[in-house]
């Protein structure tokens, strides 16, 4: 069964086209959307980093860039001191950076290293985001009177959503994120995929010995514990949505160092079979409980939306929530809607 492209229906639904300019930065072709639309009065620029899905490319994100930038630019304002641009680039081993096509495939497609290939690819993309944050300003705003880049947001879809979770947790300069059909718990989503793929390493022990097997090596688990949100907080142990006071003290220190004061919108398809919400749900329960309870002082804004009847797709409801959330972040007024389509 072919992997669906969650962005395939977004290209023809864009509003007014937004300018694009490509820069070669550190060996990466980065497409910057919206430079020409910045107002002469702009003094501060926010950057929305766009991370595409598996088997896709940076071109898939043009419609999302257009919608977010147009939404912000069309909001009523007495002046335009804050501007928005969006940057898209090919994930590692994707688009013009493809080295080995088979490495982007799944177990069902015959890729025996699917788990380590996928994690290392989107982990690399998260690192690339930090690298490009370091250098973007010197390429696009090098004039003495140019506006400054003062805010970074990340938006990822599917594989890009997995990467966006890592950026959100590991890049301090990114203060807000939109995760579309991505998962913060790599162990859970891949264990579930191994079950559905009927891998022998899963079937032989009903999953009990899958972690640490040839399909999910111990070295991969070590990397997950360094970079994956669930791995950073819980390692390979089960997630406790209601930790003890002792655990709260330990977890609170990690949350302080990773996401204190940040804001995130998570959009999941209720009928998603590829990245099912039940794989993210334990982590999201923990995060929601923490940020509305014992970790409320961390001032972390979490919006966790599940869209009934939606599969592995970037649905219209998700698009609407994304543009609203991004513009609200720029305006400094993120407010949870009382209802959604």
UniProtKB/TrEMBL annotation:
Superkingdom of the source species: Eukaryota
Stored InterPro entries: AB_hydrolase_fold (IPR029058)
Name the record gives this protein: Alpha/beta-hydrolase
Lineage: Eukaryota, Fungi, Dikarya, Ascomycota, Pezizomycotina
